[in-house]
Amino acid sequence: MPAARAIDPIVRQALAIALAVGALGLSFGLLCADTGLGLPMSVALSTLVFAGSAQLAAVGVVADGGSALAAVAAGLLLNARSVAFGVALAPILGGRLGRRLAESHLLIDESAALAAAQSDPAAARRAFRAAGLAVLVLWNAGTVAGWLLTGAIDVEAAGLDVVIPAVFVALLAPRLDDAASRATALAGAAIALALTPVAPAGLPILLAAAGVGAGLLVARRGEAAV
Amino acid sequence: MTWAAVLALAAGTYALKAAGPVLLGGRALPDRTMRVANLLPAALLAALIAAGGLTSDGAWALDARAGGVAAAILVAWRRGSFLMIVGVAMAVTAGTRALATLI
Q1: Which of A56, A87, A131, A214 is an S-S bond match for A187, by CB 3.0 to 4.6 Å?
Q2: Do A159 and B27 touch (CB under 8 A)?
């Protein structure tokens, strides 16, 4: 059998996601270089913080002349949604404390989304690890490449800035097979859009979690009708 | 950016990530909590999609990315593959920008 056919579909999808996120890593590396961050600090952000939107926000604040404290606050606020993803994934992230501590570092939007797209807990855990590790490697590779290639890539002309929302579309679509999920997604998007002009960056995404209320209402009405 | 800020951000992000798995990991959550937990990803992913496609720097924005995200949704709805969805979104966004510079 050809080797390509033996690749686990979960691993294949994790690699595809990681490639897309790696492309975004290019723009993070570019931003770091433009903002005057050295390569070691840029890579430290991508390995130790390892949260794309928090990193982009923090460096973005510094690029706009903000203080380091403001940069940290923006980054943390933007990543507060990890708590919600962490609770959602808690049932599949069990095991010894050491393992839970190690796997927590791999909790990012993409690993949470690929895990949530699986139908059984074992597959979800495999998807979480595969996506987390693959993204960790390629996000850092992208950061280094972007930092080194400053001036050579035009992120916007290549359409690279739409990659992440498109990845989320691909990961969300299979979840929308019931009315409760569809209502939740619509409410979440509406909350995020409504709050964007008035709330600080990060808060709209976090508060979009309240969209779950719409899904619960729809689910209850569905049960009452049966 | 200072090294102290990098480390503070790393420690803070890690604490946010670890809260759920460390405090609740592997435990069977009550039915009601499970129902909320199962719906959470849909709410957050849809919010990230809306923010990525229709906002920019804390304001609503209708630009080439909106077209790309709309195309991605269309391809996903027609059950296109993962790479198709991402590829079409990039092509539409890049194409729209290329056209805009021509006009």
Answers
A1: A214
A2: no
Number of domains in chain A: 2
Query: pLDDT per residue over A85-109, tens digit each?
Result: 999 999 899 889 999 999 999 999 9
Nearest Cβ partner for B97 among A157, A164, A185:
A157
Mean pLDDT across chain B, nearest whole number? 92
Residue A85 sits in which domain range? 3-174
Q: Which residue of A has its CA nearest to B59?
A: A197
The size of the A-B interface in CB pairs under 8 A is: 306
ipTM of the complex: 0.89
User: In 10 A of CB A223, how many CB atoms?
Assistant: 8
Based on the fold, state whether residues A168 and A184 are members of the same structural domain. Answer: no
Question: Residue written as tokens 């990659």?
Answer: A163
Are A104 and A213 part of one and the same domain?
Answer: no
